[in-house]
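Quick one before lunch.
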Amino acid sequence: MKIGVLTGGGDAPGLNAAIRGVVRRALQGGDEVLGIQEGWLGMLEGIAEPLTHDSVSDIVNLGGTILGTSRTNPYKHEGGVIRCRANFEAWGLDALVAIGGDDTLSVAARLVDEEELPCLGIPKTMDNDISGTDYTIGFDTAVTIVMDALDKLTTTAMAHRRVMVVEVMGRHAGWVALIGGMAGGADYILIPEVPMNMKRLCDHLLRRWAIGKRYSLVVVSEGVQVKTEIDESQLEKDEFGHILLKERGVGPTVAEEIEKRTGLETRVVVLGHLVRGGSPSLTDRINAGRLGVVAVDYAREGRWGYMPAIRGGQVVPVRLADAVGQTKTVDLELYRLAEVFF
Ligand code: F6P
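Model of the 6-O-phosphono-beta-D-fructofuranose complex:
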């Protein structure tokens, strides 16, 4: 077989481990792999190169993606799908493994359903918001980075008797804020799934001060709804219709409001792309490699329109159509658990 592989959407640590899994499994069974560059853009423009045993040597520990990535949506380009099909055929592909989040996987799902192209997916997103799977590539590393950052920010917050507001990525789901925040001992966590209550937050911070805890760490997800001066309809959108949430300035807005209401000195740190950078964690290296290997097994079985997912520790097939388009949001039970530690 000739298997194409691409990575789309935001990069995430563990993508290279997944590519390595695809290539090594394919070569083990005598199959070939073509690396398509920069996500669906490479598919549209016909940019690809063969991946050999050597191409994926020494990349298990490397963040980013050796294939490059983009937020290109073929359905937003004139004749995009026709061009994808033409390249698919010109390259002689028998299968395509698209590694990505909801956007990338939704394109793969449509290409299977509407175009009958033999595509599969692998779930990747540091946001951890893909349905049908307990695990997505990049999340474990991201929350570990948030935890490390909170450890560092705690000491400076304590030294200056300050409130530190830490804004983290997470688009429409609060997983990164919640799990990273819990691990780093956050004193309050704001996520999009729980309506913001500024009074409750400020009362909590003042109560801490009153009992002698003269510092606090507040973790806020970029997707939280706050009133800002910014007109969101004017913000630039990517080809999947998403605005860059960082531009909304949620962290600075929350910090300003805390200072105004409590009089406590407050600083803000926006972790942004830092949580997507650097080496993948142990979990991301192992799980991404597993998913890469199993995706090739699924291709050999002709399971088009599926992705290998991890559920209860086992790798299981999940239909892309069942995984995309429905954000996996935070379980509120888990938020109530986090509140125990506020
Ligand atoms: O989708 C993943 C994500 O990390 C979001 O949490 C974030 O809003 C977005 O990507 C920003 O990424 P970029 O600046 O690369 O478009």
